[in-house]
Amino acid sequence: MKNAKWMLPAMLMLFSGLMAAQSLTQSTVVTKVPFNFMVGNKIIPSGETAVRAASPDGQTLAIRNFDARKSALAMSSREESTAASSSTVLVFKHYGDRYFLSSIQLKGSHATYELPESKAEAELRAQNVPATVEILMASLK
Known about the structure:
This protein has three helices and twelve strands; from the N terminus they run H-H-E-E-E-E-E-E-E-E-E-E-H-E-E. The chain is α+β, with helices and mostly antiparallel strands and 141 residues long. The longest helix is centred in the first third of the chain and has 20 residues, at 2-21. Helix content is 23%, strand content 45%. The strands form three sheets. The protein has a five-stranded antiparallel beta sheet with strand order 6-5-4-1-12. A five-stranded antiparallel beta sheet has the order 7-10-9-8-11. The protein has helices spanning 2-21, 23-26, 119-126, and strands at residues 28-33, 37-39, 42-44, 47-53, 60-65, 70-75, 77-80, 89-95, 98-105, 111-114, 131-137, 139-140.
């Protein structure tokens, strides 16, 4: 009987964690990006951009601009935070006139999908080019 009273809270926590873990694998993040940006060594033109998991574990992401017929695959690492994100956003690092997709946060999820720094971004950072962060609101479809 002692085990039974702890079983329900444990199962609820397990299922809520699984739902958050699979939210990017089940959904597509969509937003209109007003600037060209880089993912790895590929340039994605401005316009409506969709991000979706390309692998069952959600670690490989497919970033697409359907109108421009450009896409890129990127490996991501999943970071957990203590608080759930209040909105779905794409986060970009901005150096001079260049933008790099940095991370994706999903509303209601504790997970942040971090993209690795590209060679071009590392070179700009090594040259001490000032960086800012651009955050674009997105929606889940």
